[in-house]
Specification:
Elements: E1 10-15, H1 23-33, E2 37-42, H2 46-49, H3 52-59, H4 77-84, E3 87-93, H5 95-103, H6 109-116, E4 121-125, H7 129-133, H8 135-146, E5 150-151, E6 155-158, E7 164-168, H9 172-183, E8 192-197, E9 202-205, E10 208-210, H10 217-228, E11 232-237, E12 249-252, H11 256-266, E13 272-275, E14 282-284, E15 303-305, H12 309-316, E16 322-329, H13 333-343, E17 348-353, E18 365-366, E19 368-372, E20 377-379, E21 383-384, H14 385-404
Parallel strand pairs: 1-2, 1-3, 3-4, 4-5, 8-11, 8-13, 11-12, 13-16, 16-17
Antiparallel strand pairs: 6-7, 9-10, 14-15, 17-19, 18-21, 19-20
The structure holds ligand PMT.
Ligand PMT is lined by residues 198, 214-218, 256, 275-279, 281, 306, 308-310, 325-328, 340, 352, 354, 360-362.
């Protein structure tokens, strides 16, 4: 996903003795792909489920297991590991490690590190549903949350032990997002943000529609970036085939009129509104209730204009609200974008070159220029959409700071 906050970070991953320990291998691989330096501490029980050699090979760092190992502890390794980490993650976390951490017990390598570290901590419980639901475990989780430890809720479903319930190892993407959030300052806490994404579909009969190739990737990346900064995010999305980001309130719509109606309901409550959706400018005047039959003649469809959503929001916007548009352009990019900035009463617009194969619709990267009302322009090189999203949020944050004198 190329999440900027992860790149170059040092992470200490604790693996404890759960059948889900094998899933930690995939987590290591994904973290390495994000440019994270992963150091692993395994409990002795974890070594019953997966081998330290596999972990060492994937993490490309020595694995720590034994607190009293003469070699590992020659330079007081547990204190060094506890100090060097930007973040400590326990995944999977058994009921046992939750209990030890909650009580401050330090009787092996991992529990000693948990006591010795000053780094933020994320825990991903995974265990039998009865053990997870047990009041003792729940109490320990509450204690840990109270100490500002981020506890990722386990998934529900069928378990290796044959039972059904909550206790499954959470999806890797959710853990990666939790880690990213814990590493990001919560600068958008208490802010309500509306992000639109994806295409709209304008049907002219029950099975055919006019649309565009928007995948939702740009808008979804913005929603994820805002979640990482601890905003309350409403994602207003047209039909796409990518999974929704964790932690957003999702509003699914199909047509531009549906998007307009929902946006107008939500907008008054929002602090920041970012329209990355590729909204259909026109819709068929008539929608046939039956499938239009094929003939040898040309088919003419009369299109009528859809309301301009962000322009309508621009007319009712409160002084403290920030509205951001995108301009998908094929020519006169800067000129067209700056006209939209003014006509739609936006605070800033992202001019998007959609002529290149590495930019615009469907691809994972984008080439944009961010235009502000004071005439300043931030020109970005071709970047992953995740990074474009972060840069855009930085610009918005800076604008709010200058405007509100925060
Ligand atoms: O989804 P991806 O595959 O990742 O692609 C990303 C993207 C190319 C769709 C995105 O980066 C982008 O450029 N989105 C804006 C597309 C667009 O509709 O541009 P526009 O120039 O036609 O519209 C200008 C602005 O007005 C946009 O913020 C648009 O959301 C908004 N608009 C447009 C029409 C309309 N009826 N109502 C609107 O609010």
């Amino acid at each position: 996903m190329a999440i900027p906050v992860l790149k170059g970070k040092t992470l200490l991953l604790g693996i404890t003795g759960s059948i889900a320990a094998y899933k930690a291998l995939d987590l290591i691989r994904r973290l390495k792909e994000e440019g994270v330096d992963v150091h692993v501490v395994m409990t002795k029980s974890a070594c019953q489920f997966i081998t330290p050699l596999t972990v060492q090979t994937l993490s490309e760092n020595a694995v720590a297991i034994d607190l009293f190992s003469l070699r590992e502890e020659a330079d007081i390794g547990h204190i060094k590991l506890a100090r060097m980490a930007d973040l400590v993650v326990i995944a999977p976390a058994t009921a046992n490690i939750l209990a030890k951490a909650a009580s401050g017990i330090a009787d092996d390598y991992l529990s000693t590190i948990l006591l010795a570290t000053r780094a933020p901590v994320v825990m991903c419980p995974a265990m039998n549903p009865a053990m997870y639901e047990n009041p003792a475990t729940q109490k320990n989780i509450e204690i840990l949350k109270g100490r500002n430890i981020l506890v990722v809720e386990p998934d529900s479903g069928s378990m290796a032990c044959g039972e059904e319930g909550r206790g499954r190892f959470p999806p890797i993407d959710l853990i990666i997002e939790a880690i990213s959030k814990k590493l990001t300052p919560p600068t958008w806490k208490d802010l309500k943000v509306l992000v639109s994404a994806g295409p709209t579909r304008e049907f002219f009969d029950p099975v055919r529609f006019i649309s565009n190739p928007s995948s939702g990737k740009m808008g979804y990346a913005i929603a994820r970036a805002a979640i990482r900064r601890s905003a309350m995010v409403h994602l207003l999305t047209g039909p796409v085939s990518i999974p929704p980001p964790y932690g957003v309130t999702i509003h699914n719509v199909t047509s531009a009129m549906e998007m307009y109606n929902r946006a107008m309901e939500l907008a008054p409550e929002m602090d920041i509104i970012i329209m990355a959706a590729a909204v259909g400018d026109y819709r068929p005047e008539k929608i046939s209730t039956k499938k239009v039959k094929k003939t040898e003649k040309a088919l003419a469809i009369t299109l009528i204009p859809n309301p301009d959503i962000i322009a309508a929001i621009g007319k009712i916007k409160k002084p403290q609200q920030i509205t951001v548009g995108f301009a998908a352009e094929t020519d006169n990019i800067l000129e067209n974008a700056s006209q939209k900035l003014i006509h739609k009463n936006l605070d800033l617009i992202v001019a998007n070159d959609v002529t290149r194969p590495d930019s615009g619709f469907c691809v994972d990267t984008n080439r944009v220029k961010i235009l502000l009302r004071d005439g300043s322009i931030l020109e970005l090189p071709c970047l992953p959409k995740e990074e474009v999203a972060e840069k855009l949020l930085d610009v918005i944050e800076d604008l709010r700071r200058r405007r509100d004198g925060i």
